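Quick one, tokens below. Sequence please?
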């Protein structure tokens, strides 16, 4: 198996993506679980430890609601604009191309999220344990490099899957990578606002 197939998933996997909505809905839930779980992180006990039954049920309902909401918003708001852009680029190329549904692009996005989730969880745990304690500067540098590598790895997986679906080649892949990265960062800012003004306000 090639190096890229290990880290960015095999091209054949992307080609076999279908329009089954059951797996799409499951993927949306997993993305929401990932997003909300990583945001709350070590703050979870703050909202679920030592609380009355009523508050526990309320907080659980809020978290579950946000998992569904954020998962849905994340997948839809990322996929649809990029899907329209990629269709536009494909038409400008004046190539016949394959008929690609937005559901397949959504599944590419979901897969990219799942690919980097294990390392994101590990990094979250490590950074939580380090906290404000004094650590070796070399360790800090290594952790920063891992975070940076994961950041690019995530968007590289999205680019690879999108390029397989739309048959993009050459320099166009670089543009897709850059656009996905910049747009993804804008969405992350919007999600942070939703978390701070929505989730954190509703949790007791």
């Amino acid at each position: 198996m090639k190096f890229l197939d290990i880290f960015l998933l095999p091209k054949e996997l992307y080609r076999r993506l279908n329009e089954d909505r059951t797996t799409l809905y499951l993927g949306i839930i997993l993305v929401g679980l990932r997003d909300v779980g990583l945001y709350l992180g070590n703050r979870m006990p703050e909202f679920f430890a030592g609380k009355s039954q009523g508050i526990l049920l309320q907080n659980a309902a809020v978290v579950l609601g946000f998992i569904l909401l954020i998962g849905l918003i994340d997948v839809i708001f990322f996929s649809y604009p990029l899907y329209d852009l990629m269709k536009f680029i494909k038409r400008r190329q004046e190539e016949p191309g394959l008929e690609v549904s937005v559901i397949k692009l959504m599944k590419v996005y979901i897969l990219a999220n799942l690919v980097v989730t294990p390392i994101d969880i590990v990094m979250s745990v490590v950074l939580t344990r380090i906290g404000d304690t004094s650590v070796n500067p070399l360790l800090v540098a290594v952790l920063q490099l891992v975070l940076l590598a994961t950041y690019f790895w995530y968007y590289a997986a999205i680019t690879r899957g999108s390029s397989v679906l739309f048959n993009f080649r050459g320099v166009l892949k670089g543009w897709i990578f850059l656009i996905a990265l910049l747009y993804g960062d804008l969405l992350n800012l919007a999600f942070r606002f939703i978390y701070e003004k929505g989730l954190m306000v509703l949790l007791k």
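Residues 19-202 form one domain. The first helix runs from residue 3 to 7.
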